[in-house]
Amino acid sequence: MKEVKETMYGEPLRIERELYGLSLRDFEKVTGMGYSYVSKYENHHMEPYEKHLDIIEDFINGEYAERIYAYLDQKGGKTA
Known about the structure:
The chain is mostly helical. 60% of the residues lie in helices and 0% in strands. The chain has 5 helices and no strands. α1 (10-19) crosses α3 and α2 (24-31) crosses α3. The longest helix has 11 residues, at 50-60.
């Protein structure tokens, strides 16, 4: 069984991603961060790599909102 590690990013990342209605693959397309990493971070299976911390923090702080809305508009999805 894999060890579960607590991280301060997992839950806020999942909540914010779901509020926008983004799947893991949608998140990957918007941010460029691989969906498998996002899943591992959200489920506390690993700590975020240093190169992902800025992306996660910017996403949680709403810095990707404009890009997300443009992506969802192009995709024909909802804009929360």
